[in-house]
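Format notes (please read before filing issues)

Several people have asked whether sequences and C-alpha cells are stored in separate files. They are not. Every record keeps both together, in the order shown below: the sequence lines, then the C-alpha cell lines. Line labels are part of the format and must not be stripped during preprocessing.
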Amino acid sequence: MDYSLFDFLQLIGALGIFIFGMKIFSEGLQKIAGSRLKGILSGMTRNRATGVVTGLATTAITQSSTTTTVMAVSFVNAGLLTFVQSTGVIMGANIGTTITAWMVALFGFKFQITPIALAVIGIFFAFLFSGNNRLRNIAETMVGFGILFIGLNFIKDGVPDINSNPELFAFLDAYTDYGYLSLLLFVLAGTILTLLTQSSSAATAITLVMLFEGWISFPIAAAMVLGENIGTTVTANIAALVGNTQAKRAARFHFFFNVIGVIWMLLIIYPFLNAMDFLIQYFTDSTVSVMSISDEGRSNSTLALSLFHTSFNVLNVLLLIGFVPLLVRFVEYIQPESGEKESFHLRYISGGPMSSPGIAVEQAHKEIQEFSEVVEQMHNSLNELLFDPKADREKLLDKIRKFEELTDEFEVEISDYLVRVTEHTNMEHELTERIRFMQTMINDLERIADIYYQISKLTERLEDGSTGWPESALTEMSRMMEAVGAAIYAMRANVSREPDDVVLNDAIRLEQVIDKVRDEGRDNHYGRLEAGEYAARAGVTFIDILNRLERIGDHILNVNESAAGRRLKAMRIEGDRD
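Then the structure lines:
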C-alpha cells in the first residue's frame, strides 16, 4: 500500500478547491441573475405546480438547492409564503440540484476539460478587476467554473489507484458484499458525506469520481446518491431552528419528502437501475453494461448515475405531488403550534445560513420598510395623544413605549444581519455601499423613534400641570405635526423605492416646511410668554416639543438621502429655487 497521509491531505485539498470553485460559480450566477432571480421568486405564491417550476428554475440559476430551500424557509418565516406554498418550491429544488451532476458527468469525465478550464481562467481573470459590474460578474462566474473543474480533476488524481492500493479496495469491498444491506449502509454513507461537505454537489462529485475510478459499483453509487438527497435537507432544518413554527414545518416537509422518496426507490432499486443501464446503452450505442468494471462501462456509468439522480427526483415529485396535503397534515401533526407567544423576529429575514447577497439585501430592504411603518404609527399615536381630549392617555403612552422598544429590536437585528451579509459573502462595491447607507438609515429611524418617545413623556407635564396651551399654540403645534406627518409619508414612499427612484427634491422641500413652521412657532411662543398667555411650564414644554419635532425632520431627510444612496446637500439650494 503506497497511499500516505500526505496523499490523503492532497485529496482533501482537491475537494476544497472543488467546493470553492462551486461557491464562486454559484455566487457569480446569482449576481448575473440579479432582478431576474427576484422575478422568478415572485412566482412562488401561485400553486404547487408553479412552485415546482420556480424551485427548479431558481436552483438552476443559483446552482445550489441549499440556497433555494433556505430562501423558501426564510420566506415562510417572513409570511411571504405559506407552508403549503413552499412545498412546491422545495420539490422543484430537488430536481434542479441534479443539473450539477450532469455538468460534472458530461464535462468532468466525458471530455478533457482541464486545459479548457485553465484557458477560461486565463481569459477572464483580468476582467475580475473591471469597473463594469456585469463584466466582473461574468468573469467571476467563468473563473469559478474553471476552478470547479480543476478541483474535480485533482479529486480524480487524488483518489488512490485500485491496482496500487489493493488493501483499501479490499476494505471497501468488504462492505459491498452484504447485498441489500450494503445499499442501506451506503445510503447512510452518502448522508454522512453530505453532512461533512455541507454540499450535495460536492458529495455527488465525490461519488461520481469513486464510481469512475472503479472504487464502488453502480448500485452502491446510486445508494450514496439517495443518501445525499437526505443529507441535503439538513441545511434547511438548521435555518429553521431560529424560525417560527411555519418555517420549521417547511424544513420538516423537505426531510420527510426526501426520506419517503428514498424508501420507495429502495424497494424497486434493482429493476430501476437496470432500466437506467438499458437507456444509457441505447442512447450511447454501447453494448457494455454500466454494471461492468471495464473502462467503457465505468465511463458510461457516470452518465447512468446522473440519469438515475434526475429520474429519481422527477418521479418522486410526480408520485408525491398529489399526496402533499396528506404529508402537510402529517408534518403539522408532528410540529404543532407551540401555543406560546413567539419572541420578536424579523419578518423577511431570519438567522441561519445566508442566502445570496442580492436577495439578502432585498430582504433587509423590506425590513426597513416595516421599520418606517412603525415610525409612522408612532407619529399617529403622538398626534392622538396631543390633540384628542377623549383619548386614553395611559394606553397611548404605553403603545408609544412599546413601539420604541420594537424599533430598538429592529435596529439591532437588521444591523446584525447586514454585518453578517458583508462578512460571509464576496460583496461587490455597489452592494457594500448600499448596505452602508442601510445601516445609516436604520440608525436615523431608531433616533426618530427615540424622539417620539421623549415627546410622549413630555406631554405628561401638560397632564400634571394646571394649565395647558392656548388655542394659538395648539394650532401651531397641529401645523407642525401635519408638516412632520407629510415628511414621514414621503419618507416611507422613498424607503420602499430603489435608490435611483428616490425623489429627494420633495424631501428637501418638506424639511424646509418643517423648519419654517418651527421658526414661526418659536417667534410666536416668545410673544405668548411675554403676554402671559400660558404658564412658563407649559411654554417650556411647547418649545421643547417643537424643537424635537424639528430634529425629527432632520433625521427624516437623512433617511431619504440614505434611501437614495447619496448625500446631496447641494439639492437644498435647488429646492429653494423650485
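For reference, the curators noted about this record: Residues 570-578 have pLDDT under 50 and may be disordered. The longest helix spans residues 429-464.
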